[in-house]
């Protein structure tokens, strides 16, 4: 096997993972301490967001028929490292007396930072090694923290549900990395780049967890939590109905597509995020959800093939349609809302110009950062998998032998016969 496709993780991955964990522990020992005035009021929201990160995102990516171990397993790895690193890089912007105070809110924000890396992971799913994903997580969360500080503290823009800073950032960061890591050998569809009945059912579990807990995601750190919950609730509901309708409409036989139902039904939660805690009225939230569902479905149906064939961006999970386009839509909604009505947050009047600057900076930093990270991940010794072994757990996991249905039936029949003979 050529050195650029060396998937032996015995030493390289172990050394890198342990080295990063030691660095994190040392930094925590120096800089991190308990919040002197802690509160547990946000713990239910933290639980909901935590479930979304580990179960929702993890199972959403299990649709590939031979990549379930990697989808859930690497998701867990990225999240476990990312939330530790997120506390640090976000905390460095808010240090008091040389210390980073840890509380429930900072843990929620750390989960938010981890979500960006998991979104990017979706664009690269099946084509990267665990070493590459650890490096991407390290770099992306660092850039995310810088962009978030720019958006919220410098521009003083509102983005409570993080349509821009998490969803658009994570999507375009991952797409830029995918562009740099483009594989000509995957131009024709890979035999493992498809789902089965059962893998799609597992992915739908992820969708349902994300759908149910998305109001908590958008309202977790909001001042007007109830408003954010209500707006997200109605946006998701309207988006889901439109997604089902369009899924049938764009299919030649009028049938539903599981890919669209798994993903586009969530676009309403993404798109309403920027103005989730603003009093936009439930009907506006529903309208945002309707537009998000339309944009997401049409993106999956028509834009994804063009991106793969013309732009050389192989987006495995379609994060552009679930997170990228709805994230931009959310940013545009924030610009429109602040233009037509006066909104004040933290004593600062929100303006459409600063909202637009926040959206522009997010996209710019994401694309440039993703491309630079992709160039680093392209280094030949980082254990990337060959084209032939993409989308296959066996490159990095011990995988049990699969039993076909006839084999299972035959074995059970033999056991039944032996039991009857013994009676």
UniProtKB/TrEMBL annotation:
Single GO MF annotation: methylammonium transmembrane transporter activity
SUPFAM superfamilies linked: Ammonium transporter (SSF111352)
UniProt domain Ammonium transporter AmtB-like: residue ranges: 38-381
UniProt topology in membrane: Multi-pass membrane protein
Family matches, as Pfam families: Ammonium_transp
Protein name, UniProt field: Ammonium transporter Rh type A
Coiled-coil intervals: none
Compartments where located: Membrane
Family: Belongs to the ammonium transporter (TC 2.A.49) family. Rh subfamily.
Residue ranges of the TM segments: 12-31, 43-64, 76-95, 115-139, 160-182, 202-221, 233-250, 283-303, 323-344, 356-377
Main location as per UniProt: membrane
A biological process from GO: intracellular monoatomic ion homeostasis
Keywords assigned by UniProt, alphabetized: Ammonia transport, Glycoprotein, Membrane, Transmembrane, Transmembrane helix, Transport
GO cellular component assignments: ankyrin-1 complex; plasma membrane
Subunit structure of this chain's protein: Homodimer. Heterotrimer; a RHCE monomer interacts with a RHAG homodimer. Component of the ankyrin-1 complex in the erythrocyte, composed of ANK1, RHCE, RHAG, SLC4A1, EPB42, GYPA, GYPB and AQP1. Interacts with GYPB (via the N-terminal); this interaction bridges the (RHAG)2(RHCE) heterotrimer with the SLC4A1 Band 3 I dimer complexed with GYPA.
Lineage: Eukaryota, Metazoa, Chordata, Craniata, Vertebrata
Reaction catalysed by this enzyme: methylamine(out) = methylamine(in); CO2(out) = CO2(in); NH4(+)(in) = NH4(+)(out)
């Amino acid at each position: 096997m050529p050195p650029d496709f060396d998937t032996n993780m015995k030493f390289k991955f172990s050394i890198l993972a342990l080295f990063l964990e030691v660095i994190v522990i040392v930094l925590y020992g120096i800089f991190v301490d308990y919040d002197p005035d802690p509160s547990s009021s946000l713990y239910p929201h933290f639980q909901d967001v935590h479930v979304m990160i580990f179960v929702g995102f993890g199972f959403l990516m299990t649709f590939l028929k031979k990549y379930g171990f990697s989808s859930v397993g690497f998701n867990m790895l990225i999240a476990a490292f990312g939330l530790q690193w997120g506390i640090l890089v976000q905390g460095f912007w808010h240090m008091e007396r040389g210390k980073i105070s840890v509380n429930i809110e900072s843990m929620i924000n750390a989960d938010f930072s981890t979500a960006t890396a998991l979104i990017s992971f979706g664009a690269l799913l099946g084509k990267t090694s665990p070493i590459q994903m650890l490096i991407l997580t390290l770099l992306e969360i660092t850039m995310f923290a810088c962009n978030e500080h720019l958006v919220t503290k410098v521009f003083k823009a509102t983005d409570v549900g993080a349509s821009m800073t998490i969803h658009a950032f994570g999507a375009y960061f991952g797409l830029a990395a995918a562009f740099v890591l483009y594989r000509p050998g995957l131009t024709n569809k890979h035999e493992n780049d498809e789902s089965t009945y059962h893998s799609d059912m597992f992915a739908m579990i992820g969708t349902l967890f994300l759908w149910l807990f998305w109001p908590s995601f958008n309202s977790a750190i909001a001042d007007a939590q109830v408003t954010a919950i209500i707006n997200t609730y109605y946006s998701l509901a309207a988006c889901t109905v439109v997604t089902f309708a369009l899924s049938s409409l764009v299919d030649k036989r009028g049938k539903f597509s599981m890919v669209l139902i798994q993903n586009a039904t969530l676009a309403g939660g993404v798109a309403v995020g920027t103005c989730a805690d603003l009093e936009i009225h439930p009907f506006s939230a529903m309208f945002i959800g309707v537009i998000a569902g339309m944009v997401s479905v049409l993106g999956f149906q028509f834009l994804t093939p063009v991106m793969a064939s013309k732009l050389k961006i192989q987006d495995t999970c379609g994060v552009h349609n679930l997170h990228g386009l709805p994230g931009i839509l959310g940013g545009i909604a924030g610009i429109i809302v602040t233009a037509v009505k006066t909104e004040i947050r933290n004593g600062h009047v929100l303006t459409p110009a600063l909202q637009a600057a926040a959206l522009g900076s997010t996209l710019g930093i994401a694309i440039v950062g993703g491309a630079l990270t992709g160039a680093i991940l392209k280094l030949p010794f980082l254990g990337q998998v060959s084209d032939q072994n993409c989308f296959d757990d066996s490159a990095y996991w011990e995988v049990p032998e699969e039993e076909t249905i006839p084999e299972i039936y035959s074995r059970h029949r033999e056991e039944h016969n032996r039991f009857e003979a013994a009676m």
